Structure formats: C-alpha cells, structure tokens
Amino acid sequence: MNTKSRDPEKLTREWMNDSGMEKPSGNFTRLVMEKVEMKKHLYPYKKDNNLWHYILAVGLFLLYVGYRYFSGQELLPAGIDLYNEIQPYIGMLQLLFERVAFDMTTPIVPLGIGAIVLLLAFDQFILRSLSFNR
Amino acid sequence: MNHSDEYYIDRVLQGDHSAYAMLVERHKDMVFTLACRMLKNREEAEEVAQDAFLKAYSSLRKFRKDSRFSTWVYRIVYNLSVSHLRKNRKQMHSLDDEAHHLDLEDTHQRMDNLEKGDRKKYIQQALFQLSYDEQTIMTLYYQDDLAVDEIADITQMSQSNVKVKLHRARKRLHDHLGQILQHEINSLL
C-alpha cells in the first residue's frame, strides 16, 4: 500500500476496503426464501401472459356459435329452456336474501359485524403501529 | 444473465417469488455487514438481516423506484438494528469516546508494514470500537460508495450531520488504530 501522500481520505478508503465484507451463513438465501414462501400469498400468482387463454375461450365460443348457425340449428340445444333452467337458482338467491334481511333485524348479526370491525381496527391501528420500528 | 434490481422487483410483483432470491443473493453481504457492524454479533446480525429482507419483501409494493432497492433495504436493516439495540439495551455509543490522539504518521507507517491479514484484523478491531452509526456511515460511504445524501436518507440524519459524523468517525478510526498498534508493539517488547 502506498501511503506516501498521507491523504487520510484515501487511506481510510483503502483501509475500509481492506476490512472486507462480512459473509452470512451459506444457507442465508434459502432461509430467507423459506420465510418468503410462507408470505407469498401477499402477491397472488399471476401467469406472465394469459392473453392466449382469453383468445382461445372467445375462439371456441365463436366456433360453437358459427357451427350451429351455419348448420341451420338453434343457438341453444333443443330442449333447453333458459328461463326454466335458471329459475331455481334465482329462487335460491331470493330465499337467501330474505333470510339475511330477516337475520339483520336480530341483534346478534350487528353485534357480530361490530366485533369484526373492532378487531380489524385493533389490528390496523394498534398492532401494526406497534410492529413498526419508526 | 445480469438483470437490474428493477427487473427482479417487477418479476416478484408479477408473481414470480423465486426472483426475490436474486435480490437477496445480490445484496446479502452488504446488508449482513451493516447488521454485523451495528450489532457486533453474527447470530443476531444474521437474524436481523433475514428480517430486513422479509420486511422488504412484504413491503415491495410500497417501494418507490425513485430510489435504489439497495438503499431501501439498507434503511430497513438500519432501523431494525437500531430497534434491536434499543430492545436489548446494548451500548449504542463507541466503547471509548476518549480516544487518545496519536501521531497519524506513526499509525500510517505501522499500517504499511503489516501483512494484509493483520491489517484487516486491526482495522476490524478499530471499527468495532466506533459507535453503530459511525460504523454504518463509514461502511456505506467507503465500501458501498454511497453519496452523503443517500446515507442521510438511510440513517434519517441531516446531510450536515452525516458529514460531521463521517469526519469524526474517520479521525476516531485512525486514533483507535494507532492505539491498537501501540498496544501490540508494547506487548511484543
């Protein structure tokens, strides 16, 4: 090392570089990634390019419609009455909403909702603020 | 292939979690070095460094790309180390605030005459005696070539404070080195 110039700035830089870097254990990255694996639900998996799936779905639908149209058939297969097919499901939904509307008039549901809101607020404003360092 | 940090961040945000391993691999040494120098304990430093990467991962969506990923992770590890020190009530200042001012020329000359391995050992000993923020500033400035404004951003100090601490830390490093070398010479005689 040439220290003829005795420039403290330059010498310090050389010494600091001589001090080297600390190396973590060999499995450091693996350990971090194991913890990341447990948290990865934060970023739901998305495929890079799923455009082809949409194109394929639309293409198949058009093919089906085209086939039935050009072969002189009805668009829906014979024997299918759309109104009668979906009627039971609409009835179920109606029943469900009526039941929920009825339950809302009893005190247990608003109390339950209030408890959930309270827990969420506790988590958001108290627990998270305690877990932050600054 | 050597992609930028931004490339891997985008990959992670698109759902490719394994891309995060590249970011960890790239920055783990500096993050661990900072934690080590602040905490002065390898096991605790490893734990804090892992937590820093995990916290960075959890907050990756909030990362603003107007700063570097490395700077951002350094700030996280700095904050985690400070809170770890506070929690464990460890000494947060230098071991010896009253370092004697030895002849710099002597210190430089003695350092020149040392083998590289010995030099590294003595520099690490001298660094060990600096306070955690002095070590952080010295490491970031001299080993990672960060600018004063970036260090101020990481440590949440003013730029002028960083400059003062940098100047003081450099002086104290030289003084401590002088003391260590003098002690070694005395023990040999």
Keywords:
heterodimer, A: 134 residues, mainly alpha, 5 helices, 0% strand, flat, B: 189 residues, Rna Polymerase Sigma Factor, Chain: A, Arc Repressor Mutant, subunit A, 2 domains, 9 helices
Brief summary of the model shown:
With 134 residues, chain A is mainly α.
Topology (SSEs and partners):
The complex is a heterodimer of chains A (134) and B (189).
Chain A: H1 8-19, H2 28-39, H3 51-70, H4 82-104, H5 108-131
Chain B: H1 5-13, H2 20-39, H3 42-58, H4 69-87, H5 104-112, H6 116-128, H7 132-143, H8 148-155, H9 159-188
CATH level-two architecture of the largest domain in chain B: Orthogonal Bundle
Distance between the termini of chain A: 43 Å
Number of helices of chain B: 9
Task: Work out the number of β strands of chain B.
Answer: 0
How would you characterize the overall build of this protein?
The complex is a heterodimer of chains A (134) and B (189). Chain A is mostly helical and 134 residues long. Chain A contains five helices and no strands. Chain A is flat, with a radius of gyration of 33 Å. Chain B has 189 residues and is mostly helical. Chain B contains nine helices and no strands. Chain B has helices at residues 5-13, 20-39, 42-58, 69-87, 104-112, 116-128, 132-143, 148-155, 159-188. Residues 93-101 of chain B have low confidence and may be disordered. At the A-B interface, α1 and α2 of A face α2, α3, α4, α5 and α6 of B.
